[in-house]
């Protein structure tokens, strides 16, 4: 069976142990802030997809457009079906959807990421509070040893 986590007061730790805890907290904060940035980028991509779907309209039917094959490679093409788009649903699968359905799909993705961002933001704030408390404990210990 799993054992319950034992709580230890930071005041009971020596400076070396506090420094180890600080390093661990810094690593966790770096990881969380990197994850936050990656989620923000993903959210921006999904918002761009919503805008792109908005550009596919009946008025643009049979007009020449640039079709993205990759992030940096576009080829000219003609828009033959202005009512449907191909949506990347992940892991290499693509689905034909109506424009409204595609916007709904991407909007759901944006909302899902937003809820994760909010949760992650709370976690980051708590870790920063822990870091500030730890730094205060370390400073008081340093002052005690200097006295």
TrEMBL record:
Keywords noted in UniProt: Chaperone, Coiled coil
Pfam families named among the record's database cross-references: Prefoldin
Domain of life: Eukaryota
Residue stretches spanning the membrane: none
InterPro entries given in the database record: PFD_alpha_archaea (IPR011599), Prefoldin (IPR009053), Prefoldin_subunit_alpha (IPR004127)
Coiled-coil residue windows: 8-42, 103-130
GO cellular component: cytoplasm; prefoldin complex
A GO BP annotation: protein folding
Molecular function GO terms recorded: unfolded protein binding
Keyword Nucleotidyltransferase carried by entry: no
Family according to the record: Belongs to the prefoldin subunit alpha family.
Record HAMAP family: PfdA
NCBIfam families xrefs: prefoldin subunit alpha
Protein's recorded name: Prefoldin alpha subunit
Native source species: Mycena pura
